[in-house]
What we know:
heterodimer, A: mainly beta, six-stranded mixed β-sheet, five-stranded antiparallel β-sheet, 0% helix, B: 115 residues, mainly beta, seven-stranded mixed β-sheet, four-stranded antiparallel β-sheet
Amino acid sequence: xxxxxxxxxxxxxxxxxxxxxxxxxxxxxxxxxxxxxxxxxxxxxxxxxxxxxxxxxxxxxxxxxxxxxxxxxxxxxxxxxxxxxxxxxxxxxxxxxxxxxxxxxxxxxxxx
Amino acid sequence: xxxxxxxxxxxxxxxxxxxxxxxxxxxxxxxxxxxxxxxxxxxxxxxxxxxxxxxxxxxxxxxxxxxxxxxxxxxxxxxxxxxxxxxxxxxxxxxxxxxxxxxxxxxxxxxxxxx
Lengths: 112, 115
């Protein structure tokens, strides 16, 4: 079993839809999670990070961690064509080495 | 400013060439990273420098040689690469790399093609 699992998609939605991107993780000791957005042929851009349970909101983006289910989510409200990208969840796991464990990435396409 | 810069943006090299990739950050971060990313895959960690010392080498072949001249700069020296080394090479930095909640910021990457 991979430590972090993410459905690669692709996920296609109409403009204005609410998008839900999800990852599951295997180790209940994991506490810190990040979401990165990566446009084609570009470097990953940090969108949000969350620590422990609960929600964190930033504009149209909400990150959510459910520790009981070992499930993390990124919601995008009022999705735009410019949101079309690959979204990567990541966690340092339980190490203090700086090494990140990435999900496989979900490719999102928002159609005008 | 959360900017990590990388040069060059694109690089084409033959298998006998020697070239270098460069990365720079001015955020005062003390940890810097090299990743390799193949198409439709997540980044794979290659090296970590913490306080200018190599702290992680993920069993990377010796044809890749990292160097950290100072806390703002990170180089990756390339020699005798193989076509399968063609990929996007990403640099990242973080505050100090020594604790779990240390967020990494990525550069735009260098797209490397080995002929």
